[in-house]
């Protein structure tokens, strides 16, 4: 048997029942096909080989699948594109993975109400392009936006490069259609901008990582397309100076749409791959952008320059045109992929209140030194959300992994000590369950458990993810 999590229920009976009741459903049972659904982007976690992978095209099929899984006591793992960084879409041995990639229709763009209604398997970039063709803008933009799905974004409450101004995925959701653990289809919200009837179930389900319900349709807020951005990059001699600039820009009341950080290791890795001509000797770089209308964007960048210089910027450069700005943005988006060229990369996702960014950056550097690990840091600094990424030398083997585990524990303690979080946007998933009680406390986790028991009493949906084992 492969690395295990859970094997339970009557898998063979489930497969027979699916084939009988849903003969048109695409169901992958071949071991090689299933193998590609074993992992998400957290290659280091123990995972399981799914019993089978279902690729439904309709809500009716999803509801029937969940009902059949209940009847046969086989757990369900919902999955989008598998780009997640917490192990929450990885396979569970003996469970049915329901991958939403064939539910990929944009159902309605409602220009009068500024909403889009979509199936969950639509790729984020495709949704953005579909609404942009009507002069509209869907804001949430994880760096993985060209590959991740809207369902996965809803499952994780994904952030991204312009959350600072426009909020995270949850802020964009006003309606959902979901399949509950007993197979019931429930519609929540709709197109009302204001709607306070009953408990707020949408914010609860968004970010629940497939542990409470399966999302089969979403109605999302749109905005008029913003104007072209003004973009600048600022280089710093120390990481802490860049952190001071982040805190300074926030304190100055500026509202950039993007405020992203890359440290020296990341700058060099990105420049090696993309040849952007970045200052490879700088200790850190900030990417700052404004999408205010007309001259206001230039004025906002004008105001950002003295703040960066006051914090110690050694060089500030403005993008000359939209193409140059897009190259810089794309360089930042692909930072993790560039770091993967350097060594085995393990990306973390801590967050701190923005005023504590300089201190957090100092602590990250010290943790790297203490555990003799290369740590590259980049991330959504304007949100206080950093991705310290440990880079392991393949030749070092297990010794480095032991040091990494210790470094990771120190990293989480440091973030919590500064009033922060062990995960800003990637989620607890399977990777961080040990830390949930440490961050939220026993009482809060008990409330979460009671919600899980109420909505999924048989622990059918993504078991073992998000909540640590009881007791
Ligand atoms: C290079 C790179 C950059 C990234 N940048 C960012 C970033 O900037 N911001 C960010 O937040 N994340 C980022 N991520 C992480 C990841 O892309 C996001 O978490 C994304 O939202 C996952 O989408 P997915 O379609 O791949 O979902 P998956 O990984 O397949 O699933 C993610 C979670 O959603 C659940 N889920 C999927 N579909 C459904 C559904 N229909 N109903 C209920 N639950 C569902 C799954 O069970 C799982 O818990 C990045 C990842 C990579 C590799």
Strand arrangement, largest sheet? 15-12-14-13-17-18-16
Q: How would the global form be characterised?
A: globular
Mean model confidence by pLDDT: 95
Q: Helical stretch count?
A: 16
What hetero molecules are in the model?
Answer: flavin-adenine dinucleotide
The biggest beta sheet is recorded as: 7 strands, antiparallel
Calculate Rg over CA atoms: 22 Å
Note the topology.
Elements: H1 11-21, E1 26-28, H2 31-35, E2 52-55, H3 59-71, E3 76-79, E4 96-99, E5 106-110, E6 115-118, H4 124-132, E7 136-137, H5 150-156, H6 163-166, E8 173-179, E9 185-189, H7 201-205, E10 214-221, E11 223-224, E12 230-236, H8 239-251, E13 258-263, H9 264-274, E14 284-290, H10 295-310, E15 313-318, H11 322-333, H12 335-339, E16 344-347, H13 357-370, E17 374-380, E18 385-392, H14 398-417, H15 433-440, H16 442-455
Parallel strand pairs: 2-4, 3-4
Antiparallel strand pairs: 1-2, 5-6, 6-10, 7-11, 8-9, 8-10, 12-14, 12-15, 13-14, 13-17, 16-18, 17-18
Helix pairs in contact: 1-3, 8-10, 8-13, 13-14, 15-16
Bound molecules: flavin-adenine dinucleotide.
